[in-house]
Design a protein that fits this description.
single chain; 491 residues; binds zinc ion
Amino acid sequence: MARTASGTLHRQRESTAAADAAPAPPAPAYFDAGHWGRAAGDVWSGAWLDREAIAERAHQRLAALLRFARAHVPLYQRLHRGLPPASSLALADLPVLHKSQLMADLPASLAASGLSRTAVEAFIADPAKIGTPLADHYAVWTSSGSTGVPGIFVHDGDALAVYDALELLRFRGLSVAPLPAGPFMASERYAMVAAIEGHFAGIATVERLRRTFPMLAPWVRAFSVLQPLPDLVGQLNDYRPTLLAAYPTVAELLADEQRAGRLRLSLDEMWCGGESLSATTREQVAQVFGCRVREAYGASEFLSIAWPCRHDRLHVNADWVLLEGVDSHGRPVPPGMPSHTTLLTNLANRTQPLIRYDLGDSITVLPEPCPCGSQMPAIGVQGRSDDVLSVAGRHGHAVKLMPLALATVLEDDALVNDFQLLQTGQRHLALRLGRAERSRADAACSALRAYLQRLDLPGIRIDLDPALPHREARSGKLRRVVNAVPPPAAA
Ligand SMILES: [Zn+2]
């Protein structure tokens, strides 16, 4: 099974706009020890800067990125045509970039003018290439289409070096190490439970590190969320991880298994990301595993956006990534208020510059300084909040279905992205599809049935609901997997 771009992507045209763009300098190597060391030094020193120095460092990087994008990337030549020189502009003066614009003409968004959409799509259609470089230089990550549009993001070796350094030195809080082997060689075993059958940022990063540092491979492994839960539990028991990364809904299910005695892990830490981590889930998971639960915030657009300090507040890596929380009219939202969406500017990656890119997430910048003393801004993230479904198994017992797995089946096996799956009864699911996806209704139902069959759940009925996916009125966000079983009537 491979994640491929959707049919809509195939119909979109190749760029013809490259005529004005000067050829970009050669892309940095996929892995270069010198660049990796420089990025580590920069990230280490950045943590000691005060707020003004962080802003100045980011400002210099933004100015250089703007000059580069306008010289070498056709998309920005088009978007920024007629605007004053970069040096006289503030970030807020620049146009917002939406994923649909980026995907409408993928080659025009790249400084790598030799890369065609066909080459990129052939690469991401091949699961054997997960974690390997495209054209020897580029990492390519796909994102789910939680807003209805799947994304393709191309990163260069310099960007990867920055993401690795942020992950190691800020998220992990290590002192500068020449290679990421040290901490793992000691006694740590890292497991990621995720969708691993496509070129997603998480699995692609795990595979890249395993290939770049083969000595790490026994200590770093990924496990598929698509397999039956008893199989996953057995594999984790055999592997005995000490660090486990998972979506919060997956962590909750694993906590149920641990509580029931079927899963027997001794964890030092659980890392949760990809969905909202509620205080209840954090407490339950921490209590069951007897370990610290840390929230992570990253995206296919920038791998390590923020890290949790010892007070469990998420600090933005503001020297390398700019976040602007804005309301539904694109106006800045003051600290303490949740944003409608967030505009991201990636200061590390030049191959596919993202400048004021609409990320779709809602963030709240925390108004008060964090007691940890970090000068990087602290935020709260209101991420996806899909439901874990609980359906009746073959013998009437409850079987939990993970939203990440259901969404991955629909996206990868049926190539539908604009959907909403509702549980309407113990044995009933209802699928709503966006208008553009309705021709794939049979494929979507077949993919779900095949998945339920693999889980030994033959008695679950799937109906097509003619309604469109229902977005939340306030945020416009789509909850894609929803428990809509009416609560039992009060006695
Ligand atoms: Zn803090």
